Amino acid sequence: MKHIQRWVGVVVLGVLVGGLVLADHPGGSHLVQVGPVHPAHGFPIWYKDANGLSAELCLEARNPLCGFLPGDVPNPDAPLTVPGNFPEEAFWMLASSTMNTRGGGRATLTLALEAAFASGPVAAGDQLSFGRIRIRVDNPRPGATYRVIHPYGVNVFTDVEGGERGIDFTQDIGSGNFADALESHVGPFLTWSPPSSAPAGFFGDPNVPHAITGSPFGTNVFRIEGPDIGDPGSPFLCSPPATDCIQTELFSLMGKRATLGGVGPLRATYSRTASGGALDVFAFSQPAQSIQVRSPGFSTTPLGGSPDGSYFARVSLGSGPLPTGITLVNITDEPDTVVSIQPVDLVSITRAEYDLATRELRIAARSSDEVEPPVLTAEGWGVLTGGTLVRTGVSVPPPFITVRSSRGGSATLPVLVLGPGTAVPVVANAGPDQSVQSGQSVTLSGAGSSGNITGFSWRQTAGTPVVLTGAATSTATFIAPGTSGALAFELTVSGPGGTSVDAVTVQVLAGSPLVANAGPDQTVVQGRAVTLDATASTGATRFQWRQLSGVPVTLTGADTARPGFTFPRQNTVLLFELTVSGPGGTATDTVQVTNIQDTLTVTRAEFSLARREWLIEGTATVAGPGNTLTLHLGPTLADPVLGSVTVDARGVWSFRQRDPSRRPNATQTVSIESSAGGQLLRVPVPIR
């Protein structure tokens, strides 16, 4: 069983499908704060953990303590900027550990707080950060259960596959909202044990395997427990030695202690009256920083700070013109960190109300600029006149109101709803019209009705009279009379929201010829749902389907007019027989279902040695979603899996993966199979 999990912008804690986390962090031991964004590369300058330890991106291209390989940084001697000169991935912390498993296999653990780009290549605006836990284990016993203990918890894998990467688990939590990474299981930061043994300014040296510390559980190890995970005599066997447990305390660890505080602007708003004005500036950084606010024509003003890293300054504006722009400068940093920000007015919404009785929306707001009052606009509702706006005939109140100023300020306030509560209306649904045979038991169903329903009532309005059973319930039944004709019925539902009526017609057929119609032959995609259709049959009161040939499938609803099944994932022809019965006796018909042959092509295939990256692209005749390709490293489909990719709606697919540990084997080929039955063997992969 492969285990791959990624969350973008979604925080997930506790139980994880495919890798059960048995313990979450003790209270207060996660990462706790994300720093300001660096103006040069767009990533947070630092992350801080609950122990007060801060890490910055290790971006010294020629420093071996940062772990870059040749080619990772386009120009290692130039300043790092986005998009011009930056690696595709960088780390605030990267810890990895490796052990040998049985039969010459390998187990790897990766723990990281990573900076990357959503689409892969370096691109401005694509920055994201995430905490990663990755566990890969070769040659576990198929079907067995294994526990993996590591510094950030315990993962349990059940019913695992054998072979290379029989356990393959990745959990990424984070997004372009850099605060999401705080909710990952990575944290607090790990350091060499003891921390004083690490190179100055760093958590460790990634080139030297070393014992570490920092686990909130005290499990500063990489340990795997499960049947025959180790070979007899392996140096990784636990103590006392047994092949069902391997462990190592050595990690490759990279991380740099934060040296920059940076400065993150939170708000810069001005207020002014005829007698003068002031500019209020709010920011955040590390504690004990020297931060200034500067603007041409105004005095440089220091920001006062608090122990939690909050900063504030008020700049007197006098009665002169407004500043056209300001800069915040952290002069503690070397070099100075400089961030520009445009001051805006402060918008206050004093009223946002909706009256249910009059269906009237009332909005009132004001700006802090009383000298040149700006235009205030309620988003989606219009311009405020004299600071107010009233809209009538509003059927549904908005949950929030946002007012924007022509000076740049804005405010959002929840709408206060006034008036009595409203009842949910009821809607009657008597179901579709029907055609039945005389003597047949007929069911009228109001199950499709909606709302807060407290009562059902069925009555016949036209046609030969029948006896209704269950007329006061959602489902009524009767026996169709022996004469042809239309029967009309009416359903009334009631509730606190009032009443609702719907009608249905039942056409009685007497003496209609009995004809079985199993529907037209079908051609479908492997693995997709298939519905057989006998609704074109006539004179039938009962239906029965059975499979005559082909790979056996399970029919759901075999005694209904429209049964279903899932087409097997193999090339086959399925033949089904329909038997219908009614007053005229019985009749049969057959229908054949075959699968579409998926044809695969490869338009590009290469492995970049410099980037250690696979790039394979092509097409499939069965378009997605739902068609998944699996790529095997070698000339046959029995070779190890390289990865998988989904075909898009145009029938196009693209597989791109950076993996230093997986290079083309001696055949320099890959083989591809699709979930829709396509195969392509021995595709050459040039090394570039």
From TrEMBL:
This is Ig-like domain-containing protein. It comes from Archangium gephyra. It comes from the Bacteria. Gene3D superfamilies: Immunoglobulins (2.60.40.10).
